[in-house]
Design brief:
The chain has six helices and seven strands, in the order H-E-H-E-H-H-E-E-H-E-H-E-E. With 183 residues, the protein is an alpha/beta fold. A seven-stranded mixed sheet has the order 3-2-1-4-5-7-6, with helices on both faces. Helix 1 crosses helix 2. The N and C termini lie far apart (40 Å). Bound molecules: S-adenosylmethionine. S-adenosylmethionine binds next to strand 2.
């Protein structure tokens, strides 16, 4: 298999944000039969959650509209793909109808989604973990200047956690936002 990956997926800003997600989700003590990850890219969030094994989840399915992501995410998570598909990646536009009924939906790619359909289609009562940021970037459709902005964009019926994390580097910095709760 010829693989070309975007190295940014392994940058400290991406990995640090996903470790933060793992820590806060684990702190809530929630369990999940089926977790969907929208815009799951290379499946790093799933890899971290499953490796840490503190968040009790029976199955994780990762969806990305980019067909190149599926084989990479499955390769990274091979340890769980072969365990009766405890992990599986799929190629799918999450703004279309997503079949099945996950009890938890994670989206750390909110800034890349070009419509709110994915959010509006989530069944009320479903728990979500959402991340966004204030990074100016050509690929970003949604820009949240503050945590309050971010929280306003994704209205939830109840919020279990909301916060922001600064990533400061010698030449630049950005803030990541995270919102965990129930639609
Ligand atoms: C650059 S990556 C992820 C950045 C993010 N901060 C993270 O690490 O989760 C954004 C991903 O969202 C995916 N994406 C964008 N719109 C999508 C959609 N409608 N359905 C599924 N995946 C989507 C892209 O294909 C891409 O793989």
């Amino acid at each position: 298999m010829n693989i070309s990956v975007n190295k940014d997926a392994f940058s400290s800003g991406q990995i640090g944000s996903k470790i933060w997600l793992c820590e806060e989700l684990e702190n809530l003590g929630w369990t999940s039969n089926l977790t969907y990850i929208y815009g799951g890219w290379y499946g790093i969030t799933a890899f971290l959650l499953l490796s840490r094994a503190n968040f009790k989840v029976k199955q994780i399915q990762s969806f990305d509209v980019d067909p190149d992501c599926e084989s990479v995410a499955d390769m990274i998570n091979e340890n769980w793909v072969w365990q009766e598909w405890k992990f599986k990646a799929f190629t799918l536009d999450c703004n279309d109808h997503v079949k099945g009924s996950a009890d938890l939906i994670i989206n750390t790619s909110t800034e890349h989604f070009d419509s709110m359909n994915w959010f509006d289609n989530i069944k009320p009562g479903t728990r979500v973990v959402l991340q966004g940021n204030n990074m100016p970037h050509d690929d970003h459709v949604i820009h949240s200047e503050t945590l309050e902005d971010f929280v306003r964009t994704y209205p939830l019926s109840s919020i279990a956690y909301k916060s922001e994390k600064e990533f400061v580097y010698p030449n630049w910095s950005f803030t990541r936002y995270m919102l965990i709760g129930t639609i």
